[in-house]
């Protein structure tokens, strides 16, 4: 701030008091605080990706904890994405309620249903306190099932040892 042009004693005294109080604070803020602040281009903090649970040793509890936290963050992000897709579909249906155009919202609904099925494949049936180890075991069991019986939802393969009876 510039010094005021008026040279009367009261203005000069007020200006000196102002400088005594403001200059150290301004200096501290501009030279120390602002250069050391972390600036994120987004509204949320970005976490680095950590190793997954399949790369952790069984006795490495720090790695298991980090993998579990990463899993919980991923689950929260996927849940929010699913919530946004559900809100978009609900908004489309509510907006077109009077016009009765269901074909307009059909594409949004198909995307939502596909993502809901994928969410359930990954996080469903894990209970209220999901854990990365249980999710990994669920994925392993699903892969074994698909290897033995084919993709889930396609019907089971026929048993090659089953004797076919003619009616």
The backbone outline, from C-alpha atoms, is: elongated
* Helical stretch tally: 4
Helix content: 55-70%
Number of strands: 0
User: Can you write the helix and strand succession as a string?
Assistant: HHHH
Mean pLDDT: 84
Termini separation comes to 100 Å
Strand content: under 5%
Radius of gyration: 31 Å
Tell me about the biggest sheet?
A: none
Poorly predicted regions: none
Number of domains: 2
Structural class: mainly alpha
Give a description of the structure.
- This protein is an all-alpha fold.
- The protein has two domains: 1-42; 53-147.
- Helix content is 62%, strand content 0%.
- The chain has helices at 9-36, 61-95, 102-123, 132-149.
- α2 runs antiparallel to α3 (102-123).
- It is a peripheral membrane protein.
- Pfam families: NDUFB10.
- This is NADH dehydrogenase [ubiquinone] 1 beta subcomplex subunit 10.
Summarize the structure.
It contains four helices and no strands. It is an all-alpha fold and 167 residues long. The radius of gyration is 31 Å and the shape is elongated.
Structural topology:
Elements: H1 9-36, H2 61-95, H3 102-123, H4 132-149
Helix pairs in contact: 2-3
List keywords for this structure.
167 residues, mainly alpha, transport
């Amino acid at each position: 701030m510039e010094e005021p042009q008026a040279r009367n004693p009261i203005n000069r005294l007020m200006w000196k008091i102002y400088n005594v109080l403001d200059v150290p604070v301004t200096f501290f803020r501009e030279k120390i605080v602002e250069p050391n602040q972390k600036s994120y281009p987004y509204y949320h903090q970005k976490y680095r990706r950590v190793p997954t649970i399949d790369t952790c040793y069984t006795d490495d509890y720090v790695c298991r904890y980090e993998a579990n936290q990463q899993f919980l963050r991923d689950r929260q992000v996927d849940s929010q994405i699913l919530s946004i897709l559900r809100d978009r579909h609900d908004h489309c249906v509510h907006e077109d309620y009077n016009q009765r155009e269901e074909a307009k919202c059909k594409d949004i609904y198909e995307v939502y249903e596909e993502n809901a099925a994928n969410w359930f494949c990954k996080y469903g049936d894990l209970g209220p306190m999901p854990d990365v180890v249980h999710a990994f075991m669920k994925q392993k069991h699903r892969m074994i099932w698909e290897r033995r019986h084919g993709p889930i939802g396609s019907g089971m393969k026929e048993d090659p040892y089953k004797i076919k009876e003619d009616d």
